[in-house]
User: Fold these one by one.
Assistant:
Number 1:
Amino acid sequence: MTAQTNSKASVMTRNEQWKQIREKLRSEYGVATFNSWLKNIELEKIDGKLVTMTLPTRFLCDWVLNNYANRIRQLWNAADKSITAVDIRVKPLDKKNIAAQKPTFGLADVSAPFNGKAVAAVEAGATPDPSLMAPLDPRFTFENFVVGKSNELAHAAARRVAEAKDSVPFNPLYLYGGVGLGKTHLMHAIGHAIAANSPDKRVLYLSAEKFMYRFIRALRFKDTMNFKDQFRSVDVLMIDDVQFIAGKDSTQEEFFHTFNALVDQNHQIIISGDRSPTDLEGMEERMRSRLGWGLVADIHPTDYELRLGILQSKVEQGKINIDPRILEFLAHRITSNVRELEGALNRVLAYSDLVGRAVTLESTQEVLRDLLRANDRRITIEEIQKKVAEHFNIRMSDMHSARRARAVARPRQVAMYLAKHLTSRSLPEIGRKFGGRDHTTVMHALKKIDELRQEDIALSEDIDLLMRMLE
Ligand code: ADP
Ligand code: MG
């Protein structure tokens, strides 16, 4: 350390002062936080009123500057009135430091903690590792979460946990459901809400996968004590995608102990998985039963209303101008999960942006052809014709006949319209299935029904109903 002297104070005195400041920081912020962020700060020099300190990484510098610099400045100022500013810079790395910084297992360790009291794992003797927690996605808030029948229980439970100040409503909260249905979104939303309502709480969010990597790393560095301390000192622990550690015995064991320690201290645990605790194969029985102790809330596949609601909310947020019928089309056709639904909307918008034309049904179908195929639940045109014929009380044969009376022509047009919206068939293919009609006839039908839907509410409702029945 090269601490230049300021006026009369000796190097020794500066070091003494710095030592005392470090002690104060340690007792004020707690050992875990101190070790994670502050331990490796080195005093570089003092120049008049400015103290310059160093840390090994840009990330640590930014984090400490944003969160602790003020307090550090106050403490320096209390020790020496002439000091009124602090600066923290990246310390040039030597070889040893570079080696210690390399992420193990090729994990991309870019992350931003979201809570001032966040906890990070510390490798034995190495640089504090702020990468323990995954970053929270700023878009994943409760405000941006659209609630429907399929997710209302999970949402209500997440809210309850997020709003509980001093109590632990259910422990653990276990959220489960298929991929892309909003589990991670809800967990991040809890994280944001707690950070806003109870900034003192130490919240730790990470995937089970990352938990495992950290644990293995701790084993390798013979640093499991530290690892345990880090995890057991948080107020709220969130582990995403717990199914990942099924079958990984030693990680499971460690997780089990962490889990019990936190439950014993009455600290909140939130877990997500892709299936219910009882269905977690490769998970020890005692762990499965623990996971089911609190509230188990499942997220069901989305229904049409929710999908449409999510699309509308995206469009509103982004102030995007788009024909509502396109949203309806997407909500009908992209049923797999919300992630794909969002992806589809983005693709359609990007395309329209690129070619400089408004989004149409045709362009949407063109751009999303592969996705629509994959999402096709193979509704056949025959099924559509049958349902429509039943609904309007006409004969199935009238779908193919040449009769042009409105009583049969209109339902036939409706069936064509539904065929276009619910299957991936081309216009000529649809025409062929309707008694060998020309594709221009089909086009005319689509246009006609689109127009009628605007003015004829009863017809519009009929069509909605039919769509729902066919799905
Ligand atoms: P999971 O973790 O269950 O696989 P995610 O939470 O990552 O799913 O959700 C996938 C995407 O869908 C995210 O972009 C998320 O914001 C979005 N999403 C899921 N459910 C909803 C919802 N109810 N309202 C708004 N967006 C949602
Ligand atoms: Mg997820």
Number 2:
Amino acid sequence: MKKLAIAALAAALMGGVAHADTIKVGVVGPFSGPFGLQGKNFKAGIDAYMALNGNTVGDDTIEIIYRDIPTADPAQSKALSQELVVKEGVQYLAGFYFTPDAMAATPLLEQANVPMVVMNAATSAIVTKSPYVVRTSFTTWQTSTPIAKVAFDGGTKKVISVVSDYGPGVDAEAAFKTGFEAAGGQVVEAIRIPLQTNDFSPIMQRIKDSGAEGVFAFLPSGPTTLGFVKAFNENGLKEGIKFFAPGDLTQESDLPALGDAALGLTTTFHYAVSHDSAENKTFVEAAAKAIGNPAELSFPAVGAYDGMHVIYKMIEATGGDQDAAKAVEAVKGLSWESPRGPVTIDAESRHITQNIYLREVAKADDGTYFNKEIQTFEKQGDPGLKAAK
Ligand code: PHB
């Protein structure tokens, strides 16, 4: 009895006394290697958020600890996440560019009492793997569904789809096929290519030979997307085959290297660096300063910036205590004005509801290329969650 009473008293005292702490956030992403620019955008978004909002929440100081994972490597992601939790004592895990890396770390969360804020990985099912996953990026179901309607409404009836053969590619293929066939179109062939593919000429030949009027494509942004769009142009497909894709294929940081080859390509996506709003202006200024070269800015920066917003809200709600369930509960239904537009963390799925924009690559007066927003699909949830269950 006495022991119990003392324990209760100690707990009450600890809870009641404010104490300034350092709260560590572990961020896993590709900070070197071929996808290094994508990780650099995570860091730019995080730096921008902390530059604009400070590095403290209440009495607590926020410290970010980065771990580099150059390419999709689930075993390494699990090892790094475990090390962050056990050795570094992080209270939050965040980042995760590639789906397999996010998936591999989800089994750790409940036991470790740590929420995961996914800042990029885009396969619908990730949020179903643990109640402690919250996502501030997008899913390929969410970004690829509207382009199917755009393709059909624009007069294209036969499409060949080409996707990277892993989670977000398989989801993108299903999203496009579902939307396009519901509208009345036909996917005449569906090709899945290994993630490591870097010679796209044989694929371009298959697209030509398929008799399709258009191609739908998804590959993860990076050297992959640059190579694919370059090959599409260099193999002469731009003349004659219509191009449909989510915005990963025309990320802003690829546009200088693509040049006129990208002009006119239409994509649907949650974020364009050119988005016209006060929030985005503030964000782009801070993120450009953080990254150094503004031409390197791309969508992982906004996923990370909004991810930090969610983490700050979680820290606020828990008063800095390590309580993953309470932290996640506090952001269910949270709405705010993101640089991308109005967003909400859907209370049921813990995935972000957001506008998806139709954009076209255009050239500005100063000769730079940008994604010009031309149509808005408002408040899109994730249609893939039904498929993921
Ligand atoms: C993913 O692996 O989930 C992923 C990576 C890059 C993208 C989209 C999705 O551009």
